[in-house]
Amino acid sequence: MEQRKFGPVERLVSVIGQGTWQIDDATHASAVATLRRGFDLGMTHIDTAEMYGDAELVIAEALAAHRDELFLVSKVLPGNASRQGTIAACERSLRRLRTDRLDCYLLHWRGRYPLAETFAAFKQLQSEGKILSWGVSNFDVDDLEDAVAAAGGDGQIACNQVLYHLQERAIEHAVIPWCEQHGVAVVGYSPFGHGGFPGPRTAGGKVLQEIADARGATPRQVALRFLTRQAGLFTIPKASNAEHAADNAAAGDLELTPDDIARIDKAFPRGANRGGLPMI
Ligand SMILES: NC(=O)c1ccc[n+]([C@@H]2O[C@H](COP(=O)([O-])OP(=O)(O)OC[C@H]3O[C@@H](n4cnc5c(N)ncnc54)[C@H](OP(=O)(O)O)[C@@H]3O)[C@@H](O)[C@H]2O)c1
Question: DSSP per residue over 107-119, as a string?
């Protein structure tokens, strides 16, 4: 599994991680086994959120003997993101996850509390050793500019977690270039379109299958690799089935040629810049 530097954080993080939204829809045992299979195959970057219900409880059980290998990320809901509310939310997540620290803590999306207030809480949590780093999610470029100003400069925001899959490439216009320039990692969420992955009979699906066949891979592995084709990009597919986790993990070692990348780019065009940041 390829690992990369995560923005300004002094840690290497797996390019393919594991999302956990709705992982608790599977049986508890199956969800725990899936996450563990993923850890064993190097998908040690784990994404969760206080919003994801019992997902933090599933992770708590899965991480037992693995905590030190993991890069564990959770998120505060905007409605809780006051100075005191952020601290309380983080402490609740730590209790649910049965751990003493998060590796990164994110504001899930921008809400009514001033960013300076939320970030002051993040800095306090960081100084207390409860979080290693912090960042944002669903931030467009104007939000990112405000965030850097509220943070007091570059080098503090670890990542921006945003929607990114083959049929939704809007972040390539401005968000990815901005993050690259400011040293902020980009974590793409819903890499399979939250259940809308191109089927084998579609034109795009056929291109993915041909490339997959040529590389001894699967179409989903090809997609994950395309989505992490540049430095600074990470992806967090969610699986609740251990075979799916193993399939996703193998993307971490896949190599696509420039010709493969060009074919995917053509089959799933990024489209014009219509402005605005898509999110789900
Ligand atoms: N920051 C945000 O606002 C935000 C928003 C959305 C998502 N996220 C994060 O991003 C993560 C991923 O996004 P997502 O959950 O929306 O959806 P996703 O990862 O795009 O797709 C998940 C779906 O793909 C299936 N799948 C996964 N691997 C597969 C494989 N190898 N073969 C066949 N099917 C496979 C899963 O099935 P099974 O479950 O049956 O394995 C599930 O139905 C979330 O879990 C969450 O952590 C963040």
Answer: ESS--SS-HHHHH
Ligand 1 centroid vs 192 CA: distance in angstroms? 6
Look at the alpha carbons of 101, 3, 30, 67 in this order and tell me if their dihedral is positive or negative. negative
DSSP code, position 88: H
In angstroms, the Cα distances linking 111 to 33, 76, 108, 133, 137 are 35, 11, 9, 20, 11
Q: Is residue 211 part of a domain?
A: no
Which CATH number is 157's domain given? 3.20.20.100
What is the rounded average pLDDT for all residues in the chain?
Answer: 96
State the closest ligand 1 atom to the C-alpha of 237, by its place in the atom list counted from 1: 19
- State in Å: Cα 98 to ligand 1 middle: 24
Ligand 1 centroid vs 51 CA: distance in angstroms? 15
203 within a domain of the structure (yes/no) = no
Give per-residue burial for 160-173: e unless 16+ CB within 10 Å, then b: bbbbbbbebbbbbb
Number of folded domains in the chain?
Answer: 1
Distance of CA 163 to the CA centre of its chain: 9
Q: Which two tokens stand for residue 102?
A: 């998060």
95-129, pLDDT tens digit by residue?
Answer: 999 999 999 999 999 999 999 999 999 999 999 99
Distance 34 CA to ligand 1 centre (A): 13
**Which of 161, 189, 208 maximizes ligand 1 atoms within 8 Å of its Cβ, making it the mutation to test the pocket?**
189
> Any residues with Cβ below 6 Å from ligand 1, and which?
19-21, 47, 108, 137-138, 161, 189-195, 220, 236-241, 244, 247-248, 280
Neighbouring C-alpha atoms within 13 Å toward the C-beta of 238: 21
- Enter the pTM of the model: 0.97
